Amino acid sequence: MMNVSRPAVHPVDSVPVAPPANDRPPARMKDVQGMPGTTGGLILRLSQFVPALISVSVMITTSDYRSATAFCCLVLAVSLQSLWSLSLFIIDAYALLVKRSLRNHLIVQCFTVGDGITSTLTFAAASASAGITVLINDLNKCNVNHCTRFETAVAMAFISWFAVSPSFILNFWSLASF
Description:
Blueprint: H1 39-60, H2 69-97, H3 105-138, H4 147-176
Helix pairs in contact: 1-2, 1-4, 2-3, 2-4, 3-4
């Protein structure tokens, strides 16, 4: 007969594992004021909405804003900006009231993309409208057109765009930290 050695299996005593020093979840980036769901974010959304609403109101009450395509684009872009900012203002206010965090990857991604699109459209339309307004001023056609109203609407659109920029940057930064 063949002498085959068989390995002996010896049980090994398990080494006790020490409990972790702290039972805290992994560190996350703290909520910076201006991010979704913070008081600063709520103020930023309001500061985007109010100038956008003023810009739309001034342009729509001007009888000849349809005379230039850039002015029509401004009305469309700033209308979209005001609706976007108002909806996010409501979401931020609700999150603050019920003390919910908006630090969800999909929510922040939606906010970032939306802020990027609306800010780009608002900036492009405001720049084009500013160019047309300067042209009207240079051609001395202000007595026929409503230059002051156009300038006010364009200035409010730029202010709204300026207020969207921090929101976009903070959302993008927050998105990168997930």
